[in-house]
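tokens incoming
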């Protein structure tokens, strides 16, 4: 039991046969600070997310590019970027002094899990990854399909997009950090 995160006490209150154990023999130990649920650090991923230490800072923006040019559509790709934090970038392998870097280096065993945790879920699809939209003048519209409005989320990764028309495409994380890429179709 606990009444604060400063310390907790453990008691044995149930034994075999559903009998309640009382008295001085029911006390087991105390822990300082409290040994059970302490308020989670908001900078840590949820338990079981698969993202290990060092934990990435929040997404700052996205880098994006036209990845492949096809006859019917272009495939766009996005990479969430964190920073400015040169110490974090160095800790995950970027030793060139950069302050902005991907959430994890290419090929890292927990890159996908860390990206998914920091980016969050797309508003339109509910999948892990950014929300993609097409900028039509001042208006942003979700990508609804190549034949509907000329763009659709990549079937294998929410970090990619299929674009059948030229213009500006915007991708955003749940925290509001965005990036954009211009397509010249």
């Amino acid at each position: 039991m606990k009444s604060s995160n400063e310390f907790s006490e453990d008691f044995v209150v149930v034994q075999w046969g559903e009998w309640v154990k009382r008295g001085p023999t029911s006390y087991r130990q105390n822990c300082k600070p409290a040994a059970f649920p302490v308020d989670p650090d908001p900078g840590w991923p949820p338990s079981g997310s698969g993202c290990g230490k060092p934990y990435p800072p929040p997404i700052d923006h996205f880098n994006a590019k036209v990845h492949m040019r096809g006859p019917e559509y272009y495939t766009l790709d996005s990479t969430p970027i964190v920073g400015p934090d040169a110490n974090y970038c160095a800790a995950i392998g970027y030793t060139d002094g950069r302050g902005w870097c991907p959430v994890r280096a290419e090929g890292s065993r927990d890159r996908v899990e860390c990206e998914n945790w920091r980016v969050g879920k797309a508003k339109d699809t509910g999948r892990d990854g950014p929300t993609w939209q097409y900028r039509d003048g001042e208006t942003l519209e979700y990508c609804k399909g190549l034949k509907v409005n000329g763009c659709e989320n990549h079937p294998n990764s929410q970090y990619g997009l299929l674009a059948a028309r030229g213009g500006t495409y915007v991708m955003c994380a749940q925290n509001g950090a965005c990036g954009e890429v211009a397509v010249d179709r």
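note: The chain has a mean pLDDT of 90.
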